[in-house]
Amino acid sequence: MTFKGYADPDYGAVLSPDDLPKKWYNIVPDLPEPLAPMLDSHTLKPVGPKQFERLFPKELVRQQFSKERWFDIPQEVWEAYRTLPRPTPLVRARRLEKFLGTPAKIFYKAEQFSPVGSMKPNTALAQAYYAKKQGLELAVSETGAGQWGSALAMSCARFQLKARIYMVRVSAQQKPGRKILMETYGAEVLESPSENTETGRKLLAENPNHPGSLGIAISEAIEDTLAQQEARYLLASAFNYALAHQTIMGLEAQKQFELMDLVPDMMCGCIGGGSNYSGFIYPFVREKLRGRIETEFVACEPTAVPSTTRGRFTYDYADAAEHTPLVKMYSIGHSTPNPPIHAGGLRFHGKAPSLSLLIHLGVVKSVAFPQTKVFEAAKMFAQTEGVIPAPESAHGLRYAIDEAIRCRKTGEKKVIAFNNCGHGLLDLSAYDEYNKGKLVDWEPPEIQLFEYLRK
Amino acid sequence: MTFKGYADPDYGAVLSPDDLPKKWYNIVPDLPEPLAPMLDSHTLKPVGPKQFERLFPKELVRQQFSKERWFDIPQEVWEAYRTLPRPTPLVRARRLEKFLGTPAKIFYKAEQFSPVGSMKPNTALAQAYYAKKQGLELAVSETGAGQWGSALAMSCARFQLKARIYMVRVSAQQKPGRKILMETYGAEVLESPSENTETGRKLLAENPNHPGSLGIAISEAIEDTLAQQEARYLLASAFNYALAHQTIMGLEAQKQFELMDLVPDMMCGCIGGGSNYSGFIYPFVREKLRGRIETEFVACEPTAVPSTTRGRFTYDYADAAEHTPLVKMYSIGHSTPNPPIHAGGLRFHGKAPSLSLLIHLGVVKSVAFPQTKVFEAAKMFAQTEGVIPAPESAHGLRYAIDEAIRCRKTGEKKVIAFNNCGHGLLDLSAYDEYNKGKLVDWEPPEIQLFEYLRK
């Protein structure tokens, strides 16, 4: 049965299941400057692949250090993608355009359809597959609000790998939904701090009701991984391989725009660790760097966690607990406190090195929004397009709307695209606060740069 | 751009957006016996269309009494369907098959992708459209757990119709998610009993903390509708037109099976009011009644609300408050209490008249399951296929699994299909109870048949 894809600029584009790309794109060899190496925090010498293999699956370490442009998607992962399902549609938001009275065309990549409601399985499935293929038995990770944890739990169930996830205690108690989701997929979820690690036991001895933090959960996950030969630590974002896996979205979007005979004038999306937005734009960034398109790229972050708009492009730890090597990236400092905004997935102090470099070089711009403006956009989208966006993805949506409003004033018929990286059905309490006028904006934090950085 | 649909018996089938059917199927003219008329409960005389027009939009009343086989889908509704998006995939559950070790092929219609997570918008969009087209201003309805209310709120936002929804107070307080969803779409949600109607005020005077019930919410919605010239009452299920609108699912499934060159040997699904399952099977029932296929049909209900397995095929009120005409259907009696099972959408005492007749005539069989067996199936599906089914749709899944297990024993390579009419992401507390071994089964209720029925 042939299927050539369906495209209509008034409607959007849908690819055939057989049009799903068979390779991921790795931007590393195409970057205008080489990535700065990660440094050992004690010796300040570059860290090589060998030092990572005790913590991460081998193939992921290989991809992390690889300068190859394309990685083959293993057949098993490709089949798993199709059941998410992928390819996802690229949808024209015509009712939103009409509401805004804009001559611009707004498209969004509909990543909200995965079973866990976000784009996270794009890399979780690959990571679980490689861990299983290596003969490992246990995937260990941490999760805050639970987006990553639930994607990982689903992916481990698929490849019959055990999963143990340290979930920040206060998140597990306040937002139990995703904890239940992980457990339903069969994962073991430990509220962190836990009795399972030395780190956790020490903290619980001091305070049996310790609320936990993402930094503590990372420490526990790493300690647990290192204590077991057959365990590896699987990480949501920021690393080159996670970004490469997420390019499945951008590669699909590229085919979809081609089918419609359109080129996006502007592409925006939210940045937490950076894998969502990078995955969406990198195939287009490649074309721009080759001089083939003129697309403008705008990364959107919360004003409460302004890594790229108020932070510095410098070396910092990737985690609050100072376990990781030093990474060159945009950061507001690994010990800067993060206000409790509802977009939990954007509460990361740093950003992916390759994306940070592209922002530093001006290839990608960045902007920041307070959460009330973000939820205003989200509700507008719900009432026009019917879809409840995740608080995270609504950051990109906010910029798309602002750009469309500018087009109303200038008369420009720009083609605007944003990545709707998830739905908000497990974030409804945040919408409730907004609906009731109780949502508050947080002041940007006082930035505490790591001492090393001040030298 | 041509698109002929994609089909692969190992994977499933996906239709092009342009393959979306343009007509709904109305089974009424094809039923083996005429439907018994609805009767006025005072005069016991048949009720005609005129008596419904004050309560329901005219076009819906016309469809309710129509003997036409096909209803044109208005262009605006057809376009709205495409954005849900429709057509939805028909997916092969290969990992579930493998887990069960069955030679059977299991397919499911993936209705969980709509923005509200269920198939309810298939009729909500049509009803909101007809109300708006008639020049009405307000849609009024009631909702228990909120599946119907959220679909209606979304649909009213789309067609710029005001929506007022009476939500059972205890549901609104215990499961706030869908209430927030409705409000985010811009609907007015009143906890019932409310101060807005005489019925509500009377009950609140007796007990200011009255928990409410679906019967009370219906009474309030009807009273409110009748008090306002420009308001109409929009109803989720059971009526012929709601079933017809839902056949969009079965019509798509028919094309999808044809593309794969397969005929389902058995089709199952859950029944609450009956619109979900009827919408899935009626196009196939037509073929069976014409002698063209041999498909077996099995409707699945909870043992706690055993309308068709322990109830009677007779006249009863369609609501607990005795506002409606008498309807000939399977019922456990409109005053029989409903145990608080988690599949809130299946807590209806009666079943759609056409489906009831088909069960009565043996064209469709029915079975009942206790909820622990249903959640066992749901969790098996989550861990193999990755998808968290709604507690309602897991009733159909349970039967599909049991049939697949029988095939393992007999060696039959049956083609099994069930309708996954929604996801369970807003029902996670039920999964939590199941995961923790706390889920209980309810005894079948003591059936209290309406006095009229005993004559």
Write up this protein.
Two copies of one chain form a homodimer. The first copy, chain A, is α/β, with parallel strands linked by helices. Chain A folds into two domains: 37-68 and 120-233, Rossmann fold, CATH 3.40.50; 82-117 and 239-442, Rossmann fold (3-Layer(aba) Sandwich). Chain A is 38% helix and 17% strand. The first copy, chain A, has 16 helices and 16 strands. Chain A has helices at 58-65, 75-82, 94-100, 121-133, 147-158, 169-174, 177-184, 198-206, 214-227, 240-260, 275-289, 353-360, 371-385, 393-410, 428-435, 451-454, and strands at residues 6-8, 12-14, 23-25, 70-72, 90-92, 105-110, 138-143, 162-168, 188-192, 231-233, 266-270, 296-302, 312-317, 326-331, 365-369, 415-420. Chain A has an eight-stranded mixed sheet with strand order 1-2-5-6-16-11-12-15, sandwiched between helices. In chain A, strand 7 (138-143), helix 5 and strand 8 form a beta-alpha-beta unit. In chain A, helix 2 packs antiparallel against helix 4 (121-133), helix 4 crosses helix 10 (240-260) and helix 13 crosses helix 14 (393-410).
Distance between the termini of chain A: 64 Å
Regarding CATH, which class of the largest domain in chain A?
Alpha Beta
Rough outline of chain A? globular
Query: What is the structural class of chain A?
Result: alpha/beta
Percent of residues in helices of chain A comes to 25-40%
Strand content of chain A: 15-25%
Strand order across the largest sheet of chain A: 1-2-5-6-16-11-12-15
Name the CATH architecture of the largest domain in chain A.
3-Layer(aba) Sandwich
Q: State the largest interface.
A: A-B, 52 and 52 residues
Would you give the CATH topology of the largest domain in chain A? Answer: Rossmann fold
Oligomerization state of this entry? homodimer
